[in-house]
Amino acid sequence: MKKIFLSVFMVMAFMALPLQVLPGVEEFLSGKSWCGTVKENKYGTYPVYMSIQCLEKGGFCGTIQYPSLRCGGMLIYMGKTKGAHVFTEKIQWGRDKCYDGGRISISPGAEGSLKWLWFYPDGRLNVQGKVHVLR
Questions:
Q1: Which of 66, 32, 68 is nearest to 49 (CA)?
Q2: Predicted TM-score of the model (pTM)
Q3: How many other β-carbons are positioned within 10 Å of the β-carbon of residue 31?
Q4: Residue 83: which pLDDT band, with cuts at 50, 70 and 90?
Q5: Which CATH code of 2.40.30, 2.40.128, 3.40.50, 1.20.120 fits the domain covering 24-133?
Q6: Given this model, what pLDDT does residue 96 score?
Q7: Residues 100-124: pLDDT tens digits?
Q8: Does residue 104 contact residue 64 with C-beta atoms inside 8 Å?
Q9: What's the CA gap between 70 and 95, in Å, rounded?
Q10: 86 Cβ neighbours under 8 A, 6+ residues apart
């Protein structure tokens, strides 16, 4: 009887934990800085740096920088779609050099990397590459 009570107690205690406590993709993404090389249809390859602080829908949850294009800004988290986390860029500096309002989609890739895609607001894919944790 004591074992059954203890088992039931452990299951109830586990179920009371918020889902954020359990490890998953969200913990893998959030609180990290990422870098990589992406390829744009028109301009070739260039580096990208991004950091993700949260995954709160509608929140300013990160930053994006394109050093060679001399622009960057904030990332607004839009939610998760088809296994990918989606952000909208809010370019704050170098606005004359970069398109404001693009959408970035990131999803798990090989060996701890992220597949990185950039879309125009109308959904056309324009830039793709992969990023990894900046160490």
A1: 66
A2: 0.78
A3: 10
A4: confident
A5: 2.40.128
A6: 94
A7: 999 999 999 888 889 999 999 999 9
A8: yes
A9: 9
A10: 77, 78, 79, 80, 103, 104, 105
